Amino acid sequence: MISLDGVMQAPGGPEEDTSGSFKYGGWTAPYGDEVGGEVVQKELSQTADYLLGRKTFDIWAAYWPEHADFWPGINEGTKYVMSSTMKKSGWKNTVFIESLEDIKKLKNSEGANIQVWGSSKLIQLLLGNDLVDELCLKIYPLTLGEGKKLFDSGPIPAAFTLTESVVTSTGVIIAGYKRAGEVKTGTVGAKEQ
Q1: What pLDDT score was predicted for residue 69?
Q2: Which pick of 6, 69, 113, 140 has the fewest CB atoms within 10 Å?
Q3: pLDDT in tens, 137-176
Q4: DSSP per-residue string spanning 92-158
Q5: Residue 120 · residue 1 · CB < 8 Å
Q6: How far apart are CA 126 and CA 15, in angstroms?
Q7: pTM for this model (two decimals)
C-alpha cells in the first residue's frame, strides 16, 4: 500500500507507526470498497511464507496470532524476521535471520513463495540487491509528503512487466509487476532502420 508519492508508513491505523512524528496513520481506510476487499481476500488466501523487518513483526505479533479467523494462513506460514536484536518469539513458525546472506539463502531455497508486507527498510535492501521477483502494489490517490517510502534509498535500475491490474471504485490502482531484466533505453520517436 503506497501513496502517489511512495509513502507506505502506517496505512492501517493512527497508532500503527507514529515514528518520525507521522500523523496520517490509517490513510487507506477511506478508500475501501468491494473490489479492493476481494483482492485482499485473494492475497490472504495464498499459501506463503513471510519475510518481515523487526518493526513490522512487532506490529503483527501483537495482532495476528489472535485474529487467525481473518487471515488463517498467517499463523501457519513461516515468518522470517530480519533482526540483529531479537532472537525468539512466542508466535509459532517464527525464524530470525540477521543478514543479507541469510536472505539470499532463503530466496534460493525450496518452499512456499515468500512475501514481504510493510518493512520499508527491508524492501529497500531487497530492491537494492536485486532480490525482488514481483511487486504487488496498491497505489492510493493521495500524497502524504513525509513518511517511510517504498523507493527511498534507491533501488537498482530494473525493468518490470505489468502482469495484472485493476482500479477500484475509489481510485486505488492495484497492480502486479514481475521482474523483466535490465532497463532498456532508446529515443522517443526515432524510427527503426
Answers
A1: 87
A2: 69
A3: 999 999 999 999 998 887 899 999 999 999 999 999 999 9
A4: SSEEEE-SHHHHHHHHTSSSS-EE--S-HHHHHHHHHTT--SEEEEEEES----SS-BTTTT-PPP-
A5: no
A6: 27
A7: 0.90
